[in-house]
Each structure stands twice: as C-alpha cells, then as structure tokens.
Design goal:
This protein is of the alpha/beta class. The protein is built from 6 helices and 14 strands. β1, α2 and β2 form a beta-alpha-beta unit. The longest helix has 16 residues.
C-alpha cells in the first residue's frame, strides 16, 4: 500500500510539473498592428507546450480605462504588447505589486514606447524610446569596442532606420536565455531600434545589433535583448518583432525571434530555461 501511494505521489508530481505556465498578453492599443501580433504571440506560446496564454484587450483609444484591471497575480508572466493610453491608478498599482513580488514580465517591441512619465515602468523596462523621452529619462546604453557604454548626451530617446535584415550578436552567453545560442545569427527584416534610453538599473544586455548608418542608424551596436531585475521580478525585454500592416510579418516569423521570445518568457516566469534550440535557428 505504501509503495502504491509513493508511485501515485510521484506520478502526480510529474503531472503537476508539466502543467503549462500561465501567461497573460496585455494588448489593445498600439502604434503597431496589435490585432495581428497578439494572435501570433499567443499561438507561439500555446504551441510551445510550455505555456497557456490568455489575452487581455484594453478599451480602445479614447475610451474609459478605469475598468481595465487584469488579474496579473493569476499569471507567472505578463507579456506587454501595449503602447497606448495610461492605465487606471489601481491597475498601475496592481502591476507594480505583481512585479515587486516576483511576477515575470516580457516587454515586446513597442511596449518600450509606452508610459514615458511612469517612473517605475521605465525602471522595469530598462530602456525606452519615443513619446518625449530624452536625457531626463536616463542614459543612452549601447556597446562600443565590445564594451557597454552609458552616455547621457542630450537628445531624443528612440529612433530606427529602414527595415532590413541584420546580425544579432550574443553578449552574455552564460545567461539562461542565451546559453546554447550561436555567437551571431541573422535576424529577418525588422525595425532596429536605436537611441533607446532609460534608467537601465539592474539591466543586463544579452544581445546587440549593429545599427548601420547606411540604413539610417546610429553606427553603434544597439541593445536588442535585455534582462532586468525589479523587486523580486524578472523582466525580459526584446525590441525585435515589428508587426505592421504588411501581408507577411517576417520579423516575427523568424525562428530567432520565436525562440528568444519563448526562452525569455520562460526565464521571466521561472528563472530557468528548459527550451532547447530548434534545428531551424538561424545562423550568420
């Protein structure tokens, strides 16, 4: 009887261990095509076998935001696909409480444009751009000669040149998100954010891409993947993944985007990464 009980406990433990991690995608307002991106991100998460993703859609621009109060605490990670009107104070407080107590966050593409004057949000995302960001919001952070540079030169926060394929360079190979990935890989046609600036506290740049002046960039190695710690929470920030009104969304169809997004979400949720690198992961 004791042996049977022990086997049952082991089996139940394995079943529990394999339960998918609950993830919430927050969307509904964006200068990008959130109607497409939220569906794509949910599909990737649910098909991974690791996550079960729900979607919280905010009221439309100009509508009352007071009733938009997602239950962040019910999820292991929150994926931000949002760039729009300010949330209600109660929603802000619930989000900060969630992260402070250890909730995971994924900052996806234009979510780093949101809430420029929300101090704690800028700390959580590490770096942001657009919507009036400048030197008062923090430093430019980039790589030069293989070393991280922090630069408080006055100027705008956030820009990008024309969309193009570019090389992503791993900078922290031992981080769980990056472990096992190539030193360099080619990312599909995408926007390459540059001149991002912010507090960048407790932030680790995981990967960069060279922002070529020939494509309208800065001539610097700009951060594209970042990990941030805020309170007890873990934050994965990817600037990759532009989705506009084009018929093909090449930036999010790229296996490099898909896999780093999934790995970053798992790390944000658990602090570990169990996902293996797929055979179709791009090379340089």
């Amino acid at each position: 009887m004791k042996n049977i009980l022990w086997v049952c406990l082991l089996l139940s433990g394995n079943i529990l261990a394999k339960e998918p991690l609950k993830v919430l995608i927050v969307t509904g307002q964006n200068n990008h095509n959130w109607q497409a991106s939220s569906v794509i991100l949910q599909k990737y998460l649910n098909e991974s076998g690791v996550f079960k993703a729900d979607v919280a859609v905010s009221p439309a621009k100009g509508e009352d935001m007071s009733a938009f109060r997602p239950d962040f605490s019910a999820y292991k990670a929150v994926v931000l696909d949002y760039n729009g009107a300010a949330w209600a104070d109660a929603t802000n407080a619930a989000f900060l409480d969630y992260v402070k107590k250890g909730g995971g966050v994924v900052v996806y593409h234009a979510a780093d444009n949101a809430f420029p004057n929300w101090k704690e949000y800028n700390e959580i995302i590490g770096l942001g751009g657009w919507d009036g960001r400048d030197e008062t919001h923090g430093d430019y952070v980039y790589f030069s000669d293989g070393k991280e540079v922090r630069d408080n030169t006055p100027g705008i926060g956030g820009s990008h040149g024309k969309q193009h394929e570019y090389t992503v360079t791993a900078r922290r190979k031992k981080h769980p998100i990056m472990k096992g990935l190539p030193d360099k890989w080619t990312h599909a046609q995408d926007e390459l954010y540059d001149r991002l600036r912010g507090p960048a506290v407790n932030m680790t740049i995981l990967a960069t891409a060279y922002s070529d002046k020939a494509t309208g960039g800065t001539g610097r190695d700009e951060p594209v993947l970042m990990a941030i710690h805020w309170g007890k929470g873990r934050v994965f920030h990817t600037v990759l993944g532009h989705v506009g009104d084009e018929s093909r969304h090449l930036a999010v169809e790229c296996a490099g985007f898909i896999h780093t997004f999934l790995r970053g979400t798992e790390w944000a949720a658990t602090g570990k990464v169990t996902l293996k690198m797929p055979a179709d992961f791009p090379k340089k």
